[in-house]
Amino acid sequence: MLPRSITRRRIAAVGALAIAAGLTLSACGGDDTAGTDTAAPAPSAQSTLAKLVPENIAADGKILIGSDASYPPNESVDPATQKIVGWEVELGEALAAKLGLKADFQNAGFDTIIPGIQSGKYELGVSSFTDNPEREKVVDFVTYYSAGVSWAALKGNPKGVNPDDACGKKIGVQQGTVEVDDIKARSEKCVKDGKPAIEQVVRKGQTEVNADLVSGKIDGMLADSPIVGYAVKETGDKLEVIGQVYDAAPYGFAIGKNSGTMKDAVLGALKELIADGTYTKILEKWGVQDGAITTPVINGAGG
Q1: I want to staple 218 with a disulfide (CB 3.0 to 4.6 A). Which of 123, 172, 264, 301 is the partner?
Q2: What pLDDT shows up at residue 5?
Q3: What is the pTM for the complete model shown?
Q4: Residue 291 carries which DSSP code?
């Protein structure tokens, strides 16, 4: 296994400061065109937690949330309603309700979300961000899930893709993700060992990568474990997981460093969702319960 840092599966360029449901053929993330106004849990202010929400966030009764809705089942756009759906969306809605607020999800390019949090455009980032030290320099995180990296190929693996030796193969990844760094490092090792480089096919949205694999345009793909598992499930007998999951790391809600006690409010609300069973119910509904955590934490505070 190649050594690599444990980072957010989807490694965004963290703005200029830190330096971006089924298998639909079109990517849905990338611009602020779709939002959610779904039937979220009715806001039920928990007095202690609600008091922790900064006044500037609580004033309009909602939390503006940035999310790249091209990553099913975590978040994607329902083609029938054009609403953002997914288990992270439902978790965000339940969390907002715990704070007496409504979640307002805004579809955005992945690599624009953290800069948007820094500028105040978004009050929370919910988009499968891996909590890592580099990102903690510019935002704080409340951890809520654990995911690893998985590979997939066409059923039967007709091109004989081996994650540990994919030299000469055409492999797809989503731009801005750590999978890009992963496949680049593997390709460099191939060349160093005198083998053909990996042909890296980088797409804007994960749904495009999925579609490329189903149509045979690429030989294999890698993405977060729940994303790959969902893609395999949704395509029936067309795809299969190959190799083992590796590099497990936490997802975190991204929160601005100038948001005061907002991180404490989010942590408290998440703890209540875990305690009352809502968290587990949401994950089980979407079939992603294997990544459940029991003890969320705040990381990056004061950084």
Answers
A1: 172
A2: 35
A3: 0.77
A4: G
Classify residue 222 as left (phi > 0), alpha (psi -120 to 50) or beta.
beta
Give the bridge partners for 203, in sequence order: 174
Residue 71 has a pLDDT of 92
Q: Which residue has the tokens 């955590």?
A: 293
DSSP assignment of 25-67: SS---SSTT-B----PPPP---HHHHTTS-HHHHTTTEEEEEE
The residue ranges of the chain whose pLDDT is under 70 are 1-46, 302-303
Report the greatest alpha carbon distance in the chain: 64
Report the pLDDT value the prediction gives residue 7, as an integer from 0 to 100. Answer: 37
What's the N-to-C CA distance of the chain in angstroms?
A: 32
Q: What are 52's two structure tokens?
A: 């922790």
- Asked if 161 contacts 152 with a C-beta cutoff of 8 angstroms, the reply is no
H-helix or E-strand spanning residue 171? strand 170-174
